[in-house]
Write a structure and sequence with these properties.
mainly beta; about 1500 residues; 10-stranded mixed sheet; 8-stranded antiparallel sheet
Length: about 1500
């Protein structure tokens, strides 16, 4: 920004161009969208397809869009497709694919009038039970991973792939075996008879009442072993089994029986009744006792935190007892399967027992929230053994998996831990899934399971039914269990081509979210039913649970008749023995601000699936929940009847009468209406504004129920505890409308009772309120002082009421009493952009303001400062002499002071005075024009809801007798006013209405640039009660015509642009500009072409004058920057007296700055004038003084007098101008010092010089010959001095720098050039100094010496007489006088500019307020009429020139360059220059310049 922060009109234009470009870019974008929609297949063809793929995030078909992944809550990952608006009609065929839940989000509204039907197991729905793992997360048909394949591929993780509501459990498989040292029991069996006799017949061996087959005495050992193994071992009753017996034949009828695997002592019985022979005896003899296995053991279920132990179990516990003990003692187990123990032989033949264990639980069973995610998990549970066994080296071994199982079909389950949904149960979600069925499963073992109420029963089936998991509504439905009661069956069928008894898949998850409204049309359907289980050989698969539907609208939910929402559970599959359990119903939830008044009731199909063989195993019904913030009321945005200020709609709330029943699942709150949570719980807004009206439902009950029903707006304090509708919440501020308008702060309790009884909202603002009309409410907060003001219809009704709150957290809109409805419109809560502006207040002391008015500043101190001409003393060569170096030579250094060069007569007016409310600054509208203007200005509601108006008088009736002026009728319905015609006026309309406009500075120093201040407006018709219209012109809209920025600075305003240039709008804001003394006139628009003649002017009749019938208002004001350096005038206009005003331009009227101006109309209102005071300068002119140069000797560079050059440059001597004056001496080398050498011809090192007068050799030869020759280099010699000196020339060479060192400078007007340049100025031309003669030219003696005294300017310092200073220079301003003027200009008919006619005079107003002169806008226009002539065309004041004459000294133009030897560059006045040849601007010397001018010129 510039240093003073101003903005020029060019800046404002650039800002407007930026915004215009952005708007054009937005329009182009919208047009492109419209064209794209027009060209979409849905418009071009009858078939319109859309495919949402939530795995690839692609929307294809009629619209091609890429969505994005959103993490909604608790790890739920959804595919989000966001649009500006969503409208799906019946012609749109929507299909789905993918595994993520779907979110359709609209930045505005959603209209659904087609079917959304995803396939179960997609769009967030989980697969049905069959696989134990999932390798393709985003595939809708992933490959199956069966039991046994997890351990085969260690990269596969088994987890609950069927969803949180499925019967899926974590299965752990174990093999438990016992063993001890092998010391088998040995028994000898002997059959004998008398000697000589033979034994015949048969016998048999018995154990615990069981007998072997009949054996012969001659039977071999192998046959006896086979008989014992087959006849005395029972797999299902190990206690009655003998185990494996090794038989050795010792003699003919003598055998040794070794009990290899016996668990107990074996007592053998022998049936000998069929043996024949005398004295036959069959007996057994114990040879060795066995190592018997006995005692007890128990299992320990361990976690990191604790462990759970089973009871002590006998070493040979049976399957039934074992299974029940596990389930009863370990709570985390849901089901167990235990095979009956069987005997087994260890490697050394030791006997033992083997159990196969299958344990199912929900513990450590990781479950993702959506099918597309893999959960992370760790195993936290383990199983170990504690033993108390007897026997030699007795022990128990617990092995993971069933590979060591004694059952072959179980040993195929080589996975030790996996997750699987089995047992035929249905999945749960909103309701429980159908349970399992008792079905035989030979070989799976006895199964104990826990039912839904915790009771444990012993059955032969798998796990329990699906849970009704209460997870977020974004979760899809879960899959049902497969129709098998044990995992080994799946393993057995792994290679089967078909997959019978598979569980049904879960329903999808769909979310519709809109920033505004959601509407389901008559053909709108969302169906997310669960899938049906597959049929099985014995048991069918369980049904999948229904999915989830979430409708979330920040606005209104509209449900048309015929819509359908369905999240049914899937049916169980058929089976030969039993069908699968039904799936539980899903969940449907709706969040909205409210439901439309004409909407159908929210309902959905969430029935559970059925089980064909047993209805008790049907799935439970799901959940339908809806939550409207408004509670048990109905409300809507009514766009049919309009709202206050002519808005397109209003919020209507119908309170539910006490006799009505609540239709919501929630109980009706004590007060009825929507509540809105603020962005934070500690907001401190500066302003609350809204419009409010009430309408009775029944006109017959209106008067009877007066005061018992109404409407209220409440702002709640910072919450501490309780819900949003906690009846004990504290209300920071409450405004209620019933039979009166009331307010209160800091109350709490049962709001319905409080409102109805007006017990707590009891402070009256207006004592008599009406129905069917709008009230405008403004609440202004001052949190630092904890007070608030309330204005009703812009009139201050309460001031500085105590605010009992620390902040606000939410806002509630309520209708109460059940007898009517409330309407709200234009609700605003936030900063106060009126910047704390308040209207005047009338007291006993007069009209005052409670706000600090800006300081009106007049002319600054620097404007009123007189100044003197600076004293100067010119020094020349005389004053610089040594005699004057001491005590200034006896001269006074400064003789007196300078003359007054600037005389300011600026008075100390208008300096730092607060702005006043002057009567002359008011706009007066006569004969009720204000009421008509305001009714026309304020857009009112054309409400067609009812014609049964209850009118209590004419439209101008007083609302409150105590405060009746300017009552709220300006907001009264236009339709009511039209009933009586526009000629009807209230009793107050006969009085004139006055509008006051005042400048206002925002007291907040930290306010943004666009809220630094503005011009506020108020109106009154009695000077007592004032209506506020707020800021009608912001300083941010001001521009000046002076300063412009060097560079545009984008982005500093904090605004960003979505379209167009990335540079943004650039800087906006007042930037230090502010207005001063605004004043408004009513324009006669009928006389100007600037106004659209098609504008309709309502409420105008013949009674009003033509001037007042117009609706144009023009504001004139002063405009200045923060440094008060501009003093501009500015103009703005508006269609209404109450604004807003549009800034037109700033200017200097007639070119003069002003700080005090006013506009008014003449008494007959046929002419509007602009008056202003200003200060202007008057110049006084005299000829300037002309000083003469004083002659001076030429000085050398060392400061010594050069007498020869002084003579030559002052008088001219031809001998000083002869370059060849010593030509003869040059020939004889006498111009060079004596130097004669004798040069050795053979040895140059033997050279010598010859002194003058000496000779050597024969005949007086100077240099002996032939060895030497003579070389003469110079013969100059001074006999007087006896020195070898050359003769010097007297020629004054102009090319020597020392000869041009000195310049004439005796007076300031001298402008001298070097002598070398003056030497060339003459008419003799620019010839060479040697005259063209060579130094050795033989004709030099005969040459003619030229006298150049008259053809050159060599004599540039001629001796001249120094006369008295009687010369004068050009005219100059010797004094400037600043004086005050008053100017009055007529305005153009549209009042937006001044015309060419004006009057002005020197002077100002004489009256004063205190010590300050009165301001122009303090004058009443009626009392300050102006006899306007308009004879002047300009305020220019010509300079004042003295009338005295100066004989012979009149200044001439040439005096400016009187002593100038050149103008701009050296030699530009030479005789040969164009200036001399054509213009006569020839060389000058100081002698010529001292003579009077001839024909206006000096010199030659």
């Amino acid at each position: 920004l510039d240093a003073d922060g101003s903005r020029s009109r060019a800046d404002a234009l650039q800002l407007s161009l930026h915004r215009a470009a952005d708007i054009r870019a937005k329009l182009h974008t919208e047009q492109s969208k419209l064209l794209s929609l027009k060209n979409a297949p849905c418009n071009q063809t009858t078939d319109c397809f859309l495919l949402f793929n939530t795995s690839s995030l692609e929307l294809s078909g009629a619209v091609n869009v890429t969505g994005e992944i959103g993490n909604l809550s608790d790890g739920v990952e959804a595919a989000i497709f966001a649009f500006d608006e969503i409208e799906l009609g019946p012609e749109v065929n929507v299909t789905f694919a993918g595994q993520r839940p779907l979110v359709l989000a609209s930045r505005s509204s959603i209209l659904l009038n087609t079917t959304l039907l995803p396939r179960p197991g997609t769009v967030g729905g989980f697969l049905g039970g069959f696989s134990v793992a999932r390798t393709e997360l985003l595939s809708d048909d992933p490959a199956h991973v069966l039991v046994g394949q997890v351990n085969e591929n260690m990269s596969i993780s088994s987890y609950n792939i069927n969803g949180p509501g499925s019967p899926n459990v974590r299965v752990r498989l174990f093999t438990l075996s016992s063993q001890a040292d092998h010391i088998p029991q040995q028994v000898r069996l002997t059959i004998t008879c008398d000697d000589g006799e033979r034994v015949d017949g048969v016998f048999r061996i018995g154990y615990l009442g069981s007998w072997s087959r009949w054996l012969m005495p001659t039977t071999s050992a192998a046959d006896i072993r086979l008989a014992l193994d087959q006849d005395l071992n029972f797999h299902r009753d190990l206690k009655r089994s003998m185990g494996f017996v090794n038989v050795t034949r010792l003699a003919a009828s003598d055998w040794l029986l070794t009990m290899v695997t016996a668990r107990n002592f074996i007592k053998i019985d022998v049936d000998k009744t069929r043996l024949v022979g005398r004295g036959v005896i069959a007996e057994t003899t114990l040879i060795r006792n066995p190592n018997l296995l006995g005692g007890t053991f128990r299992l320990v279920w361990e976690s990191v935190e604790n462990s759970t132990k089973t009871r002590w179990l006998p070493y040979d516990v049976g399957a039934d007892e074992f299974a029940i003990a596990l389930l009863e003692d370990i709570d985390e187990l849901k089901a167990t399967a235990v095979t009956s123990p069987v005997l087994h032989n260890t490697q050394d033949g030791a006997p033992g027992l083997v159990w196969s264990l299958t344990l199912a639980s929900d513990v450590d069973n990781p479950t993702p929230r959506t099918p597309a995610l893999t959960p992370s998990f760790t195993q936290t549970r383990r199983l170990r053994i504690e033993t108390n066994l007897t026997g030699v080296n007795a022990s128990l071994t617990l092995s993971s998996g069933l590979r060591k199982s004694h059952r072959g079909h179980l040993s195929r389950l080589n996975d030790s831990i996996f997750s699987l949904a089995y047992g035929g149960a249905g999945a749960g979600y909103g309701g429980l899934g159908g349970g399992v069925v008792t079905a035989l499963c030979e070989g799976a073992g006895k199964v104990a399971r826990r039912d839904s109420i915790g009771k444990i029963t012993l059955t032969n089936n798998g796990t329990t039914g699906g849970n009704a998991h209460r997870y977020d509504f974004i979760t899809g439905g879960s899959g049902g269990a497969m129709g098998y009661v044990h995992p080994f069956v799946v393993s057995t069928l792994a290679e089967a081509s078909s997959l019978p008894a598979r569980g049904g898949a879960g329903g999808a998850s769909i979310v519709l979210a809109a920033a505004n409204d959601i509407r389901l049309g008559s053909m709108g359907e969302i169906i997310v039913d669960g899938g049906t289980g597959s049929a099985g050989h014995l048991l069918g698969g369980g049904g999948g649970s229904g999915g989830s539907i979430l409708l979330q609208a920040d606005g209104v939910l509209q449900l048309d008749e015929g819509y359908e929402l369905s999240a049914r559970g899937g049916n169980g599959g058929d089976g030969a023995t039993a069908s699968g359990g039904g799936g539980g119903g899903g969940r449907v939830l709706a969040y909205a601000s409210t439901q439309s008044i004409n909407s159908m009731r929210l309902d959905a199909h969430v029935d559970g699936g059925t089980c064909a063989s047993d209805s008790s195993r049907d799935g439970e019904r799901g959940v339908v929940r809806y939550h409207f913030q408004s509670g048990g009321i109905r409300y809507m945005v009514d766009t049919d009847h309009g709202g206050a200020f002519g808005t397109g709609g209003t919020l209507r709330i119908q309170a539910m009468d006490a006799s009505e029943e609540a239709t919501s699942i929630y109980s009706s709150p004590p007060f009825q209406g929507p509540e809105y949570k603020l962005s934070s719980e500690n907001e401190q807004p500066e302003r609350l504004s809204f419009f409010l009206r009430i309408d009775a439902i029944s006109s017959s009950s209106t008067r009877q129920a007066s005061g018992s029903w109404g409407a209220a707006l409440l702002l709640y304090d910072i919450p501490t505890e309780g819900s949003l509708q906690d009846k004990n919440a504290t209300v920071a501020i409450g405004i209620a409308l019933s039979d009166a308008v009331r307010h209160a702060s800091g109350f709490s309790g049962d709001l319905q009772q409080h409102l109805g009884a007006s017990k707590y909202i009891r402070n009256t603002l207006i004592s008599t309120a009406r129905e069917r009309r709008w009230y405008k409410i403004d609440v202004l907060f001052d949190w630092s002082r904890r007070v608030y003001d309330v204005m009703v219809d812009d009139i201050l009704r309460t001031d500085d009421s105590i605010l009992r709150a620390d902040g606000v957290s939410r806002l509630g809109l309520y209708a109460w009493g059940g007898r009517g409805e409330a309407s709200f419109d234009e609700i605003y809560l936030g900063p106060d952009h009126t910047m704390g502006f308040r209207c005047p207040r009338t007291t006993r002391s007069g009209v005052e303001t409670e706000i600090t008015r800006p300081l009106r500043r007049g002319w600054a101190d620097q404007d009123s400062r007189s100044s003197y001409a600076a004293l100067s003393k010119h020094h020349n060569h005389i004053s610089r002499r040594e005699v004057y170096a001491h005590n200034n030579g006896g001269l006074k250094p400064f003789d007196g002071e300078g003359h007054l060069s600037y005389r300011s007569e600026v008075d100390a007016d208008l300096k730092e005075l607060p702005a006043q409310i002057n009567a002359g600054g008011l706009l007066r509208l006569r004969d009720g024009s204000a009421a008509s203007e305001l009714v026309r200005m304020r857009a009112v509601t054309a409400d067609s809801r009812t014609n049964a108006y209850e009118v209590r008088g004419l439209p101008g009736d007083i609302e409150d007798d105590s405060k009746g002026h300017l009552a709220s009728e300006f907001y009264y319905d236009e339709s009511i006013r039209r009933l009586f015609g526009h000629n009807q006026k209230s009793r107050k309309q006969d009085a004139a209405t006055y509008f006051w406009y005042g400048e206002h500075d925002n007291p907040d120093e930290n306010a943004p640039l666009w809220l630094k201040g503005g011009i506020g407006a108020c109106a009154t018709d009695d000077m007592v009660h004032w209506r506020s219209y707020g800021i009608v012109l912001h300083y941010a809209n001001l521009t000046d015509m002076v300063h412009a920025r060097d560079a545009w600075l984008p982005g500093c305003d904090g605004y960003s642009t979505r379209f167009g240039s990335e540079r943004g709008y650039g800087c906006i804001g007042a930037q230090g500009l502010h207005a001063i003394r605004p004043r408004v006139l009513l324009a006669d628009l009928g006389n100007t072409e600037h106004v659209n003649s098609t504008v309709e002017l309502p409420f105008i009749n013949d009674h009003y004058s033509a001037q007042e019938s117009g609706h144009g208002f023009v504001m004139w004001m002063g405009l200045d920057d923060k440094n008060y350096s501009l003093a501009l005038a500015a103009v703005a206009s508006s269609a209404h007296a109450s604004g807003p005003f549009s800034f037109r331009r700033s200017m200097y009227p007639d070119g003069n700055a002003t700080r005090d101006q006013a506009v008014w109309s003449t008494s007959n209102r046929d002419l509007s004038l602009l008056g202003r005071s200003y200060y202007a300068d008057i110049e006084y002119v005299l000829p300037s003084a002309q000083m003469q140069p004083v002659w001076q000797h030429v000085l050398s560079a060392s400061g010594e007098i050069d007498f020869g050059l002084s003579y030559h440059r002052g008088i001219y001597m031809r001998d000083y101008d002869d370059y060849h004056d010593i030509y003869l001496q040059r020939w004889r080398l006498e111009d060079k010092p004596w130097l004669v050498l004798c040069v050795n011809r053979y040895n140059h090192m033997d050279n010598f010089s010859v002194p003058r007068g000496e000779s050597f050799g024969e005949d007086g030869a100077a240099c002996p010959d032939p060895d030497y020759y003579k070389l003469i280099l110079g013969q100059g010699y001074s006999s007087e001095q006896g020195l070898a000196l050359g003769i010097n020339s007297r020629f004054k060479d102009p090319n020597l720098a020392n000869n041009s060192h000195w310049l004439a400078s005796s007076v300031p007007d001298v402008k001298a050039q070097p002598w070398t340049n003056n030497y060339l100025d003459g008419a003799c031309g620019r010839g060479s100094v040697d005259g063209g003669w060579d130094l050795n030219d033989p004709d030099l003696p005969d040459r003619t010496i030229t006298d150049r005294s008259n053809c050159s300017n060599i004599r540039d310092n001629p001796v001249h007489e120094t006369n008295v200073d009687d010369l004068v220079g050009t005219l100059k301003i010797v004094e400037t006088r600043r004086v005050k003027f008053l100017a009055v200009s007529s305005l153009t008919p549209d009042l937006l500019d001044t015309s060419a006619a004006l009057d002005f005079l020197e002077g100002g107003l004489e009256d004063r307020i205190g010590t300050s002169p009165i301001e122009l806008d303090a004058l009443l226009s009626e009392n300050f009429d102006w006899n306007f002539r308009g004879t002047s065309m300009s305020t220019f004041k010509s300079p004042v020139i003295a009338e005295e004459t100066f004989p012979d000294l009149k200044p001439v133009p040439a005096s400016v360059a009187r002593y100038h030897q050149y103008n701009s560059r050296y030699n530009d006045r030479a005789y040969h220059s164009l200036g001399c040849v054509f213009d006569g601007d020839c060389p000058v010397n100081f002698l010529d310049q001292t003579a009077p001018a001839v024909n206006g010129r000096y010199g030659h």
